[in-house]
Amino acid sequence: MTGKEQLQDILGLSSGVALDLYHAMEVISLDECMAIEADKINTAGFGAFFGSLQIILGRFLVLQVARMFERPGVRYQVRSIPTAIEVLHKQTDQLVIEERPALIRRLSRLGASAPEMESRSDADLTRLIATFFEHRLSASHPEGKRNARILRDLKTARNKWVAHPEAVHLEDLPKPTYAEIDTLVDFAKTFVAAIGIGYLGSPYDDDEGNFVISSDANRSTVCLRRLLQEAAVLPGAVS
After folding, report:
1. 202: pLDDT strictly greater than 80
2. 8 Å CB contact between 233 and 40
3. Model's pTM, two decimal places?
């Protein structure tokens, strides 16, 4: 496959990072709704069901976010952000930037220097972009220390608690908070948006940074609220 085809396969909505991102956003939206309405849900006698549902969704969220940041293995390839960064490094001279102004605008929102990017060739800019995102996931760089620590805690929880029933005390495991997981999800959004528009011509967000699939990811939450209204848990007419 060409570099562009590889990026499309890694990031695509059919089976790539964008799909994992969609599911993560969906879970976060549902969990926020249940947390906000917890008192009403408990008063109506549905606390046991929604409490169990939150546990299940929490485990799924750990799996989905960890998938997005899985490092490529020697024996097999994975669809993840580190794999996409690897493609950017390896295909530097082959990749063509299709939407340069849009790409630069998105990177500028992250603190990259627009004048520095505008003067570079496609190959030089691709090299800069790969290093830019790589540093923000690396514990050896000031920009990436926090992300690297959250990722380490997340993968520990995934490996020892969610994916494998390891005989450990759960209270001894590092547990990333929802706010910290949100940080990784936001990173994934910025990466997918920048690489999607720059190299694939796919607009995953608009120029204001609004992620296109956010409304789709919130549809389950809209349905949940309507269900709770039908059950008279929440006030308001069903629309």
Report:
1. yes
2. yes
3. 0.91
